[in-house]
Amino acid sequence: MTGRASILQGPLIGRRRDVFAPSSAEDAATLAQKPVIGAPELAHRNPFYTVHRVPADFPAEHRDYYVSIDGPRAGTVVYDGARVLLVRQYRLLIDDFSDEIPGGSVGEGESPENAAARECLEEAGIRCRHLASLLRYELALDVRDNPTHLFVCTDFDRVAEADARASGPGGETVGWRWFALAECLDMIFAGRICDSFTIIALLAFHASQRRD
Length: 212
Description:
Layout lengths: L24 H7 L4 E2 L3 E5 L4 E8 L4 E8 L3 E6 L4 E9 L4 E5 L2 E3 L6 H13 L1 E13 L5 E2 L1 E12 L14 E8 H9 L6 H16 L1
Parallel strand pairs: 4-10, 5-11
Antiparallel strand pairs: 1-3, 2-3, 3-4, 5-8, 6-7, 6-12, 9-11
């Protein structure tokens, strides 16, 4: 998964303040409980992410939030009309291989859609001709700044295995396989798929199919 996004994608705090607008005295009273946010301060940096301390003064207390700035990421549910493509990667915290949708970090100056298409090519040798937006979500709302964009691809080309630059020996993936969507759902509830990125994508895609 190549490329890291810049540290802050727009303002760190309050990107969605316009979502909740007071429409009554009760709403205004709720908004009065919001804290005064201080300037973020860098607390930690490594090659993959940074952590900022964000002071917040509530009416009755002070809190310090430690926010991991991971940057945006993007992934794709590649669907051939019956099956979903999952790539297999080693994951440290389970010390095992995990079946996941292709995806990764959005590079600096790169759009989420382009990042999702790039990851499909790098990880699985799939060249996406068209991507449709599926879902955008936040992994956490206090301690992780990691906006996530999910897409669906049903229009694609299978390219030569050599074009899947992140696969094989020395790459990030050790293989890929097509699974029936029903089997993917069974794998989720059996605990065989435990990656939240993939779980959210597959459940959202399943729900979208049922709505159509």
